[in-house]
Amino acid sequence: MAPERRKMKEHVSRTCTQDKLPKSYCSGKKFITAIACLAPEKQQAIKEMGFGGLLIFACRKLRYVLCGWLISQYDFTYHRLNMGTNNTVFVNEEHVSGVMGIPSTRVDVVILKKTALSNRTCTLRVLEQNLENLPVCDEFLKTFLIFSCATLLAPNSKLEGIHDLWETIWDGDVGVQRN
Fold first, then answer.
1. What pLDDT was estimated at residue 86?
2. CA distance 79 to 76
3. DSSP for 24-74?
4. pTM of whole model > 0.85?
5. Do 81 and 91 meet the contact criterion of CB atoms below 8 Å apart?
6. pLDDT band for position 16 (cuts 50, 70, 90)
7. Lowest mean pLDDT among 18-22, 29-33, 43-47, 107-111
8. Are 38 and 5 in contact (CB under 8 A)?
9. Which one of 79, 87, 148, 155 has the minimum C-beta count within 10 Å?
10. Strand-by-strand arrangement of the 74-75 sheet
11. What are the φ/ψ torsions at residue 81 (nearest 5 degrees)?
12. What superkingdom does the record give (predicted)?
């Protein structure tokens, strides 16, 4: 049986076996677990920042196929989700605010200047440790924003090479505005 297995492996190219496919779902479990362990004053700071709705987020799994389908069906020009022929659902910031519990301030985020990448890489474990160990300050709030994006709000953004968001958040001159 061993020679047959070797023959089968010889037909598979090395690049195929080395490619790592993403999970088929986005897990909110890591986010929920990390946030549940935070001290009450840290949770209060998150609420004051306007992300209190995420503290009660209870969804443990979101399927990537569903997320991908929703994104592919969303018309960014007219802010609507095309569900089928003559069946559209209009979506605006108020809807997202209601679902995610993030207040809508009606202020657009605009990148005024791009900076060179700092090659700063963070693992989720480092972000979790920062959430646990940092005092309530801008650095803690920035860590929370990146952790929530990396685990829940935009889990593939780091994989897809979208680094402007991370660099903007980490920029030392940028403070976190609290609502």
1. 78
2. 5
3. SEEE-HHHHHHHHTS-HHHHHHHHHHT-HHHHT----EEEHHHHHHHHHHE
4. no
5. yes
6. very low
7. 18-22
8. no
9. 87
10. 74-75, 80-84, 87-90
11. -105, 120
12. Eukaryota
Nearest to 100 by CA among 63, 53, 145: 53
pLDDT computed for residue 134 by the predictor: 92
Token pair listed for 67: 């997320």
Domain-wise residue ranges, the chain: 25-170
Averaged pLDDT score across all residues of the chain: 70
Per-residue model confidence as pLDDT tens digits over 40-56: 999 999 888 888 888 88
Q: What angle do CA 105, 109, 112 make, to 5 degrees?
A: 145
Report the distance separating Cα 49 and Cα 177, nearest Å. Answer: 7
| Long-range Cβ contact pairs of 143-151 (< 8 A, separation 24 or more) | 144/46, 144/49, 144/51, 145/169, 145/176, 146/122, 146/170, 147/31, 147/34, 148/31, 148/51, 148/54, 150/124, 151/27, 151/28, 151/30, 151/31, 151/34, 151/124
Distance CA 97, CA 83 (A): 21
CB atoms within 10 A of CB 42: 19
